[in-house]
Write a structure and sequence with these properties.
The complex is a heterodimer. Chain A is mainly β. Chain A is 6% helix and 34% strand. Chain A is built from one helix and eleven strands; from the N terminus they run βββββαββββββ. In chain A, the strands form two sheets. Chain A has a six-stranded mixed β-sheet with strand order 2-10-7-6-1-3, with no helix packed on it. The relative contact order of chain A is 0.25. Chain B has a two-stranded antiparallel ribbon. In chain B, strands 2-3 form a two-stranded antiparallel ribbon. The longest helix of chain B has 9 residues, at 42-50.
């Protein structure tokens, strides 16, 4: 594999951790898979992990919002899977909602075994896609913590796992919360 | 996930000049902001089209150059 460009350091730019509060999610099969966005065409390193066209849904389908609590541990991690010479990636999207209610619990009950696609916005403003072409994300684990003392957090924590490729950046920018026609 | 029902009406002043495409008029995230296509202003609509927003198209004006000329004269 050819090298493409120099990778230089972050010269004092922002490098904020964590996610913004609105996470877009839909069932994986609600995406128009025949129109899956292509990778950006610039031929540089960033283009290897960037979708620069918008996701399209099949007619009547759309993204839905799942709201998390900012700065309570919601995050997107990507790590290696496999051993030297056979490395792949696993992405873990942790979503923390400091509220236990029937709506959040019902969401989990309904979708805990669904194939899903998520789009999250990092604090830096960059959008990331959790789930890749023919590689949907699924909920791996969840916890509804009731707390034992009056000062404890009561919160819903769930982690979605997407295997295969490092979660893509999404410069297509559009997230439709209204049904496709 | 299809239980919520909504109306999908676009405001008349936007409908006059713009067409919502690919989706029903409603909420759309774009460049970190959420716009409700049923309630955007003309200024926002112009800016979105300029930014190559995929769900809005400016309608082509139907008035012919000849008509415009006749108004000037």
């Amino acid at each position: 594999m050819d090298f493409l460009e120099d990778v230089i350091g972050n010269q004092g730019g922002d490098n904020d951790a964590g996610l913004k509060r609105t996470i877009a999610v839909c069932r994986y099969d609600d995406i128009d898979l025949s129109a899956w966005p292509a990778l950006a065409a610039g031929g540089m390193y960033a283009d290897k992990v960037t979708y620069d066209a918008a996701f399209a849904h099949i007619v009547g389908k759309k993204f839905w919002k799942f709201t998390v609590t900012v700065d309570k541990g919601s995050k997107l991690d990507s790590e290696s899977a496999g051993s030297k010479g056979s490395l792949s990636a696993i992405n873990n999207l942790t979503m923390v909602r400091v509220k236990i209610d029937a709506t959040g619990a019902g969401w989990l009950e309904q979708h805990k075994n669904d194939e899903l696609l998520f789009i999250v916005e990092e604090l830096s403003g960059e959008l990331r896609v959790v789930g890749d072409e023919d590689l949907p994300a699924m909920i791996k684990e969840f916890k509804l913590e009731g707390g034992g003392q009056v000062g404890d957090d009561k919160m819903l924590t769930m982690t979605a796992e997407a295997p295969g490729r490092i979660a893509k950046w999404y410069t297509g920018q559009a997230i439709s919360y209204t049904p496709a026609v | 996930m299809e239980k919520q029902t909504e109306t999908h009406e676009i405001s008349p002043e936007i409908k006059d000049q713009f067409e919502v495409i690919k989706v029903q008029p409603g909420e759309v995230g774009w460049k970190g902001k959420i716009y409700d296509l049923r309630n955007i202003t003309l200024e926002q609509a112009d800016k979105l089209v300029e930014e190559k927003f995929p769900y809005l198209k400016k309608k082509v004006s139907t008035s012919s150059p000849a008509k415009k000329d006749s108004k000037v004269n």
